[in-house]
Specification:
This protein is of the alpha/beta class and 433 residues long. The protein is built from 13 helices and 19 strands. Strands 1, 2, 3, 4, 5, 15, 18 and 19 form an 8-stranded mixed beta sheet that branches. Strands 9-12-13-14 form a 4-stranded parallel beta sheet. It starts with 6 loop residues before the first strand and ends in a 5-residue tail after the last strand.
Length: 433
């Protein structure tokens, strides 16, 4: 990606982090740093110009829970294609989960991923394994991985099942000042579930995964966080009782944070019936009930849920085009996350624009102890340009991921990212359809 150190962005509206999202302005970037912000700026000889056409601009968005698949599963996604999807979706930074092959359980894999992404507009922050080989038995080399650039630890895809291992992990991570991100699942309660256990699974005759499989593990981790003083981050929360557990833990001063995926505050388990067992609505945690969807939004509104993420999980066509019970869990989400957020949170009036941006810009970085982007002269330019009213159709042509496993293909969406700027690089998004 060609560097663009000098850029003049015209006609944009600053939003988030205290801005009132009303005043149109220009932003001059020089050598990758915000040099000037004023109502009208004239172009200099040595800079490119981008007319934002009245779009909003905020600090660059971050998705702290995605799967890039590389190394080992490049037929699903690569670091390059995953970053392309992120940039199209408006994200300038992502944190990638360690269920690769080999897993991200040693410093050399951490450094390999960072090296592969260094020339892209999107920053990639690897999340290291909690345990060696993600086997849940012995703690991985946390300190060495952190020195190489790991920002948190997780065995995502599987829970840290042993309470003793989780205790030790929290103690080590606490010394390093980073969170443990746990995939909250009691495997003995959840398997062999293929969807949410409830009325719909009974009607369809599918084995279901009950919400309590998620909730019991969250309760355990909250108690361990209280006992150790460590920071537990609950991955992809999905049930009402799970949100209530985190809400009470926060009220008690326990160091617990959480995230929700866009599909978990949009879709319900009824989609599996409505879409006739389309495997692109099969994920884990599974789509839950409307009451659970309502609870996700309530948790976002009252601050119980800190972060909006995607759990972007690419799978090849061959893997997904099988019978429902044999298909792998997961969908891609980077390209559509903003539109789903606009539909469910902004256009419904549940959250203000600044409240949404707090969960996309500030909170993920606070949890992972990363530098917060600021729209101020003298600060490194890390920006997302976006709108909330553009109507567009998410066709297969618009997919930048290497995979196509999205339930939103061919749907009309509202609101999209226009461009991103980061690391002296600029990427403007154009629709292909």
């Amino acid at each position: 990606m060609t560097p663009t150190p000098n850029l003049l962005i015209k006609n944009c509206i600053p939003a988030g982090n205290g801005f009132d999202a009303k005043t149109k302005t220009d932003i001059r970037i020089k050598d990758g740093v915000i040099a000037e912000i004023a109502e009208v700026l004239k172009q200099n000889d040595n800079e490119e110009v981008f007319d934002a056409g009245g779009s909003y601009v905020s600090g660059g968005w971050m998705d702290m829970h995605i799967h890039l698949r590389e190394p080992g599963y490049e037929h699903k996604e690569t670091i390059q294609t995953g970053c392309n999807a992120a940039a199209f979706g408006g994200f300038t930074e992502v944190a990638c989960m360690p269920n690769t092959n080999p897993p991200i359980h040693t410093r050399d894999v951490v450094e390999y991923i960072k090296k592969k992404a260094e020339n892209h507009v999107v920053d990639v922050h690897p999340i290291g394994c909690v345990t060696k080989e993600r086997e849940g038995k012995s703690i991985a080399e946390m300190s060495d991985m952190k020195a190489g650039g790991a920002v948190a630890f997780s065995d995502d895809g599987d829970p840290v099942y042993s309470s003793q291992v989780m205790r030790v992990a929290l103690e080590y991570a606490s010394m390093l000042g980073v969170p443990i991100i746990n995939h909250e699942e009691d495997l003995e309660l959840s398997r062999p579930g293929h969807m949410n256990e409830g009325v719909v699974s009974t009607r369809l005759g599918l084995d279901g995964t009950p919400g309590i499989a998620e909730e019991t593990m969250i309760a355990r981790d909250i108690l361990l966080a209280e006992f150790t003083g460590g920071h537990v981050h609950v991955a992809h929360i999905s049930t009402r009782k799970a949100v209530e557990l985190v809400r009470r833990a926060k009220a008690d001063g326990i160091n617990v944070t959480t995230e929700v995926c866009t599909h978990h505050f949009d879709l319900t388990d009824e989609e599996i019936d409505r879409r006739h067992f389309d495997t692109n609505v099969k994920m884990h945690p599974p789509l839950r009930t409307q009451d659970d969807v309502d609870a996700m939004i309530e948790g976002l509104v009252d601050g119980t849920i800190d972060v909006i993420c995607t759990d972007h999980a690419p799978h090849s066509i061959e893997e997904k085009e099988v019978e429902f019970i044999y298909a792998p869990n997961g969908i891609i989400g980077l390209e559509t996350a903003w539109s789903i957020t606009v539909k469910c949170l902004l256009n419904t009036g549940k959250l203000t624009l600044n409240q949404v941006l707090e969960k996309l810009v500030l909170n993920p970085r606070k949890i992972l102890n990363l530098t917060l982007p600021e729209l101020k002269p003298g600060k490194s330019a890390n920006l997302t340009l976006f709108n909330t009213n553009e109507t567009w159709t998410f066709t297969e042509k618009e997919v930048r991921s290497k995979s196509r496993n999205s339930p939103y293909i061919d749907e009309q969406l509202i609101g999209r990212a226009i461009a991103v700027y980061n690391k002296c690089r600029f990427a403007a998004n154009t629709l292909r359809g």
